[in-house]
Amino acid sequence: MIRVFVLYPEAPDPERYERHVELCRRELPDVPQRHGRVFGSPTGKPDVSYYFEYEFPDMEAFRAAGPGLQNAAEDAQDMGVEFRVYFAEIE
């Protein structure tokens, strides 16, 4: 399984973020997507405020989603908030 996860140090504007989520769903309609507010950490205040993830069954599906992921990334950049993207292979 492949997961793409996005961490936002600052929470995005709620209205603009909802438009972004809608775009992500349109671009990758068959891909499970989750997102939510980060509310804590074991050491106290978290260093990120928001989380988003995509889940792919395998590397082939992840690679096939490239154009949709690129469009989502471009829209995320247009939101004007910092974010970091990571790819993980889940065993």
3D architecture notes:
With 91 residues, the chain is α+β, with helices and mostly antiparallel strands. It has a single domain (2-89), classed as Alpha-Beta Plaits, CATH 3.30.70.100. The protein is built from 3 helices and 4 strands; from the N terminus they run βαββααβ. It has a 4-stranded antiparallel beta sheet.
Count of DSSP-assigned helices: 3
Just name the CATH architecture: 2-Layer Sandwich
| Shape, per Cα inertia axes | globular
Low-confidence stretches: none
Q: What series of H and E elements makes up the topology?
A: EHEEHHE
* Overall mean pLDDT: 95
Beta content comes to 25-35%
CATH class placement: Alpha Beta
**Multimeric state of these chains?**
single chain
- Topology-level CATH name: Alpha-Beta Plaits
Number of domains: 1
Radius of gyration: 13 Å
Helix/strand-derived category reads alpha+beta
In angstroms, what separates the terminal alpha carbons?
Answer: 7 Å
Strand order, main sheet: write it out: 2-3-1-4
Summarize the structure in short.
With 91 residues, this protein is α+β, with helices and mostly antiparallel strands.
